[in-house]
Amino acid sequence: MGVLISLIAIAVLTLVGLVGGSVPGLRYVFGVVLPYIAIATFLVGVVIRIIRWARAPVPFKITTTAGQAKSLDFIRQNKFDSPSNFWGVVGRMALEILFFRSLFRNTKADLKDNSKLVYGEDKWLWAFSLMFHWSFLIIFLRHFRFFTEPIPFFVPLLQGLDGFFEFGLPIVYITNLLIVAGVTYLFFRRIFNEKVKYISLPADYFPLLLIAGIAITGILMRYFFKTDLVGIKELTVGLLSLSPSAPAETISSMFYIHLFFVCSLMIYFPMSKLVHMTGVFFSPTRNMANDNRMKHYENPWDDEFKKEYYALHYHTYDEYEDEFRKFMKAVDLPLEKEEEDVK
Amino acid sequence: MSSKLKPADLMKSIKYEMPKKQWMDTKPEFKVGSYNYAAVPDSIKYIEQPNPRKWQPYDEDWKLPENWKEIIFEGMRQRIKKFRSLQLFMDICVRCGACADKCHFFLGSGDPKNMPVLRAELLRAVYRKDFTTAGKIMGKMAGARELTVEVLKEWFYYFYQCTQCRRCSVFCPYGIDTAEITFLARELMNLIGVNIDWVMTPVANSHRTGNHLGIQPHGFLDSLEFAADDLEEITGVKVDVPINKKGADILFITPSADYFGEPHYFTLLGYLALFHEIGLNYTWSTYASEGGNFGSFVSHDLMKALNKKMYAEAQRLGCKWILGGECGHMWRIVHQYMDTLNGPADFLEEPVSPITGTKFHNAKSTKMVHITEFTSDLIRHNKLNLKPERNNHWHATFHDSCNPSRGMGLLEEPRFVINNVMNNFTEMPDNTIREQTFCCGSGAGLGTEENFEMRMRGGLPRANAVKYVHEKDGANILLCICAIDKATLAPLMEYWVPECEVGGIHEMVGNALEMKGQNKREVDLRGTPYSELEDKSKDKLHEEKEGKK
Q1: In what order do the strands lie in the sheet with B282-283?
Q2: Average pLDDT per run of 10 along chain B, which is 549 residues long?
Q3: A76's torsion region: left (phi>0), alpha (psi -120 to 50) or beta?
Q4: How far apart are the CA of B210 and the nearest CA of chain A, in angstroms?
Q5: Contact B141 A312 (CB under 8 A)
Q6: With contact defined as beta carbons under 8 Å apart, do B174 and B99 qualify?
Q7: Continuous segment of H or E residues that includes residue A291
Q8: In this structure, are A131 and A205 located in the same domain?
Q9: Is A106's Cβ below 8 Å from some Cβ in B?
């Protein structure tokens, strides 16, 4: 069901992109106007999200400790899984964001002979996700050769690394293969892994297919259906320098589909789960040090406890003693006030 | 108990197959043995919570306030503004499914809504419907779902089938913490009087008498003096039991189950022996006679009110710092919440061990030290005369309680103590201990008789790992540092691994501790004669030899 809806959505997008690139009057709209709208939506949308998260307070320090805390001198702390200071947190976040540390722990549980639970290593999700995300990033960075003039220094560097094996013509970029492999795995996992299929929403298939669409159209353009790169670069540099020119006639429809997919992704991004890209930086279980007992942490809305909650007045010792004084007296427990004093 | 499934039948009933129907289209079914009874009105009234009434989860009509939906939505609105965690965790889940088979309730029940991702989706779908543009426009397509009584019933069923153990949060690539989601979902439900008795009545008790069990001061004194007598009988040493003593250096707080429950009680004997032996100037308190905090299973507000007693009492008695006993959720609250909720406790001093002079830098601000930190330090400085051979009848394995491991990072201290007080210790497999430890299946207020089947299911992964070391290495006692564990692992073991006992670390300390002026120990803290044990082990050796022949 979710797959079908997503497939239809992608088909529609392809068609729209195709029309946009084929009808002369629409090229300016699809080549210039829409990218601006997409970039603006993306930036504004993401910034709004970030501001909303950033403005929401973090009342408690709820670090998930995934290793030995800083403790007595002779006990060895796990500095990244249970960081006790800023740099430890930086390390933990870096491991999380760059290498998907938590996903790396993944295991697979199963029932054996209906009598015991067994667990196995399961690094596939980690491996393919990492592959997918890193390829995406590198491909995005490589695209700077289309965005700016002169080409930034890192582009040739990445191109060199990415085309390390020097086969194919034009040279095959490893990331092109990896992103397709990654996205394929992630997509089919949602279909063949029963549990994951059960939890998947249309909003899970759609972005995968959209990104697959971007990758495939990009690859087709590079290796099979050559297009006017000079014309494209003029267009993109124009766009990014805020002095757009009308797109050259020679730019192929394939490019328009590619671009339309990219625009769709940018527009879709801020209102979807894709915001996990920025959200992960805010995760309170990961980005806070496990120094809870070392340093006082203030709840920014502590004063409001009484106003907004059904504030329960804490039961004071005096109230307690008033209720139980007789019994306490009878067994010689020390008292603050004697019976006579109260009367 | 109406329907006690046999272990083998329970095992057979577990299938990790997904239903045909989509999860949004299935309704909750309140299966006997899989839910907890509703809170009684008296308790609710005593702690001034909303909508006290008589009702039960299996009732058709839950007698909700007329505007219950608005209350929930308003509650969500407030909490989204107050908790970044909630907002973020609603927004960023990608449903990768890494958490799916990490939950002990899913592993033991096969119920898809026990996959942490779906548990959270129960709340998330409602959030999408009413708080996001995409959800408002696209509805079900965007994974949005309207809040109805049926949905609320599902919330109740599944948010009270989560023990807030945080195992899923270790595996989540974004650190989404189901404990946080469950906590807030329960808080929302509490706004309309949907809660369970095993949480609310202990809260009311603790509010009034200082402890969950509702033990009044004279009863508290009785049971401690009884313990002192027991200890004297075992060791020949008469120990002091200071209660509500002003001017003591240290206030000692432990969960109330320790002075009534079994096997908690043996750990209590261990504490008494230890404190006497090192001559600690400390005190118990009747007013703060509870380390645990069931308020934390239902609302931040109740958690705060109950927690406040610890500092208040330490201040009243003029203690320098607080020492805390073996307990799980108590320690999550002490470690991660107390200082923020009711601190800073400037009237206390930075904790220093009066015996070794060690400064507990890691507790500098909160000023409360965990008993295994304290004991580790004593052992490290050779302050205890230990005879680990007095625990030779035990072969231990150690259950990391959820909260000390994932909410504190207290992993090595208990192991250090165990390794010094006993000779036989074997770890369970790696992915079932430390930060990946499996819950007892009965935490966060779910440890009731009526919920028995679900507890046995939730505890299965833990029991499964114990069984492994029991069969392979002969482990015969499951040690833990949590009162709920001690109360609920015992029946869990009885169900799944009947040959395995449950105990606390300080019971083992008490057994091994050589006390000045003590008699020769004829029995261990459980009262089992060592001579008998020796005979038993001789028998066992004999049997083994016979077997080999």
Answers
A1: B282-283, B250-253, B321-324, B368-370
A2: 78 93 89 95 95 96 97 96 96 96 96 97 95 86 92 97 97 97 97 97 96 95 96 96 97 95 95 98 97 96 95 97 97 97 95 97 97 98 97 97 97 98 97 96 94 96 97 97 96 96 98 95 94 68 54
A3: beta
A4: 8
A5: no
A6: no
A7: none
A8: yes
A9: yes
Q: Is A294 inside any structural domain? A: no
- From the candidates B24, B82, B468, which should be mutated to test the interface with A, based on the most A CB atoms within 10 A? B82
Tell me the domain boundaries of chain B.
7-30+50-194, 202-512
pLDDT at B1: 43
Write phi, then psi, for B204 (nearest 5 degrees): -60, -45
Min CA distance, A225 vs chain B (Å)? 34
Task: Give the residue among B173, B434, B98, B99 at the shortest CA–CA distance from A92.
Answer: B173
**Residue type at B81?**
K
Amino acid at the residue B168: C
- A322 with A251, same domain? no
For the four alpha carbons of B355, B361, B362 and B363, in that order, the dihedral sign comes to positive
What is the pTM for the complete model shown? 0.94
Say which DSSP state B399 is in. E
Domain range enclosing A334: 313-342
Interatomic CA distance for residues A159 and A170, integer angstroms: 12
A vs B, Cβ pairs < 8 A, gives 331
**Structural contact between residues B206 and B286, judged by C-beta atoms closer than 8 angstroms:** no
CA–CA min distance B536, chain A (Å):
30
| Min Cα–Cα distance to chain B from A343, Å | 22
CB atoms within 10 A of CB A315: 21
Query: Is residue A273 less than 8 Å (CB to CB) from chain B?
Result: yes
Q: Residue B366, Cβ neighbours under 10 Å: how many?
A: 30
Same domain, A52 and A101: yes
Q: Least CB-CB distance to A65: which of B339, B409, B431? A: B409
Residue that finishes a domain, picked among A239, A262, A282: A282
List the beta bridge partners of residue B480.
Answer: B399, B504
Residues A243 and A107 both lie in one domain: yes
Same domain, A160 and A214: yes
State the amino acid at position B25 in one-letter form.
D
Contact check, Cβ <8 Å, B340/A62: no
- Chain B neighbors of A109, CB-CB under 8 A: 101-102, 107, 461
Residue A308 domain-assigned (yes or no): no
A121 vs B: CB within 8 A: no
Is A95 in CB contact (< 8 Å) with chain B?
A: no
CA-nearest residue to A80 within chain B is B409
A4/B contact by beta carbon, under 8 A: no
Candidates B386, B73, B47; CA nearest to B197 is B47
Do A160 and A112 fall within a single domain?
yes
Q: Which residue of A has its CA nearest to B125?
A: A201
B286 and A328 in contact by Cβ < 8 A?
A: yes
Question: Is A124 contained in some domain?
Answer: yes
The answer to whether position A298 is within a domain reads no
Q: Chain A partners of B343 at a C-beta cutoff of 8 Å?
A: 296
Same domain, yes or no, for A178 and A327? no
User: d(Cα B163, Cα B388) in Å, to the nearest integer?
Assistant: 35
Domain shared by A330 and A246, yes or no: no
A75 reaches B (C-beta below 8 A): yes
Q: Any CB–CB contact under 8 A between A8 and chain B?
A: no
- How much is the ipTM here? 0.94
- Structurally, chain A folds into a number of domains equal to 2
Find the CB nearest A273 among B94, B431, B467. Answer: B94
